[in-house]
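Sequence, please.
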């Protein structure tokens, strides 16, 4: 109002307080809130419409949010559990053959397609065994001329045995110490410290002039496994020939996955497992020393998460978007170890997608599989698509050209695998592969080699052909043993697999 003195006075009544830009009352301590902090009353998301009262979700929205949070945790927990559950499936099925420390499955006549195991090879005889360290340190007396490793139940590399190990292929005594071992360590052993009480040992012997028998005989003659306290009188080992026998060691991708993961968390020391992994497992109810009793809501979420986790593994393996996964800019061949055998973006920073991709499809971790030393170790370029990026179809015919002077010190092989089981494709062929170890393969005049894939062999190309199945997908690994300089400097490249029209 205006007084006669000419002074104008503005009066503000309670219902006429100054307003903020959002229309709310400006009280004495009110300040402007920066954009992006306050929540709107409704948000449209992939979960549907989420509703809020001044930033507080209503009950229905909160349920959606928690279901989604549990699902996200579960998918990540699944991917982090992939290596562990595959190891448990490996262990539990091997122990059906016979007890740990006493039974050694061995493939006298090479692994064939009846063995369901992640990308095993049919080039060299496998010796495959599980060790139990619960009663104390275990001794392995390794034979000469083998190539092997020790991985714990968490799929951590613990050490190499044989050619790439400290015995350098001469054979030697290895002492495996259980987690937390405080006793004396006697001299005269190569010491390995697994991060679990269950440890997996595997090595390959080698064929001699195409014959696996000399290597297998040496393994059976020199190998011993016993508790350190039994060193004065070691018990005899029982070797079981698994050649040609149906045998599965691949883990499930359904609700049983979680039960197996819970089992191993309860049984084993978890000191070697990082805190984030344990936290994600705990978030879905898998916690050391506690029962695993998800309610019906959580069981449904875990079952779906296992399916989505499996689908994610398949996408990461068969349809990777990571360009650093490829050996060459102009080829479809991918590397198994992205970020080295530790799967790292940089030292100490895990590449979780790379690890999930590998453990979805493969078995065994050792730096020897990722060596970059000319003439040593091995390399494993692999592909699940043709030159156009299309999935390989078992009902179609394909050709792979390996250019002249294939750069290997020892030998090369191409093995075909089933995209479902990630194990050798089961067809009429016992060994779904072509290898330079086979003296019957046809080599072109310039030393290049052409390989063929399809339901029927091209006439006259039977020794260079691998059978595939209409209606089934497949992928292949090109193994180069003792790769030479042209591989490392990329002057030699395998062609992509070409569809034959």
């Amino acid at each position: 109002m205006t007084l006669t003195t000419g002074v104008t006075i503005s009066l503000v009544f309670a219902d006429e307080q100054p307003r903020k830009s959002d229309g709310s009352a400006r009280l004495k301590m009110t300040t402007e809130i920066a954009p992006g902090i306050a929540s709107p009353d409704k948000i449209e998301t992939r979960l549907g419409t989420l509703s809020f009262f001044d930033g507080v979700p209503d009950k229905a929205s909160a349920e959606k949010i928690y279901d989604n949070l549990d699902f996200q945790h579960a998918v990540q927990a699944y991917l982090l559990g992939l290596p562990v559950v595959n190891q448990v499936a490996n262990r539990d099925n091997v122990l059906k053959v016979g007890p740990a420390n006493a039974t050694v499955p061995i493939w006298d006549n090479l692994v064939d397609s009846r063995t369901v195991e992640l990308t095993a090879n049919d080039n060299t005889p496998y010796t495959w065994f599980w060790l139990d360290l619960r009663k104390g340190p275990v001794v392995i007396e390794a034979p000469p001329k083998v190539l092997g490793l020790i991985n714990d139940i968490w799929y951590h590399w613990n050490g190499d045995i044989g050619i790439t190990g400290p015995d350098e292929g001469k054979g030697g005594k290895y002492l495996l110490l259980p987690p937390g071992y405080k006793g004396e360590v006697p001299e005269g052993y190569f010491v390995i410290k697994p991060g679990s009480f269950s440890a997996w040992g595997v090595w390959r012997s080698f064929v001699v002039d195409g014959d696996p028998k000399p290597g297998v005989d040496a393994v059976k003659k020199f190998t011993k496994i016993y508790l350190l306290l039994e060193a004065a009188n070691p018990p005899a080992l029982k070797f079981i020939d698994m050649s040609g026998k149906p045998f599965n060691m691949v883990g499930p991708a359904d609700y049983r996955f979680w039960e197996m993961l819970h089992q191993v968390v309860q049984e084993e020391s978890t000191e070697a497992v990082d805190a984030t992994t344990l936290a994600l497992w705990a978030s879905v109810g898998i916690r050391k020393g506690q029962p695993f009793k998800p309610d019906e809501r959580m069981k449904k979420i875990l079952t779906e998460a296992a399916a989505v986790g499996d689908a994610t593994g398949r996408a990461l393996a068969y349809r990777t978007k990571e360009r650093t996964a490829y050996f060459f800019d102009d080829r479809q061949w991918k590397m198994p170890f992205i970020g080295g055998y530790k799967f790292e973006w940089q030292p100490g920073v895990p590449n979780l997608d790379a690890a999930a991709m590998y453990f979805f499809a493969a078995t065994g971790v050792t730096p020897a599989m990722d060596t970059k030393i000319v003439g040593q170790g091995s390399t494993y370029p692999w592909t699940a698509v043709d030159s156009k990026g299309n999935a390989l179809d078992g009902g179609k015919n394909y050709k792979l050209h390996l250019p002249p002077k294939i750069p290997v010190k020892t030998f090369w092989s191409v093995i075909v695998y089933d995209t479902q089981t990630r194990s050798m494709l089961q067809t009429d062929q016992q060994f779904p592969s072509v290898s330079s170890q086979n003296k019957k393969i046809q080599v072109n005049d310039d030393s290049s080699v052409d390989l063929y894939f399809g339901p029927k062999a091209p006439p006259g190309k039977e020794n260079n052909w691998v059978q595939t199945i209409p209606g089934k997908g497949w992928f292949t690994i090109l193994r180069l043993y003792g790769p030479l300089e042209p591989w490392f400097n990329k002057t030699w490249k395998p062609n992509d697999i070409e569809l034959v029209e």
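The mean pLDDT is 94.
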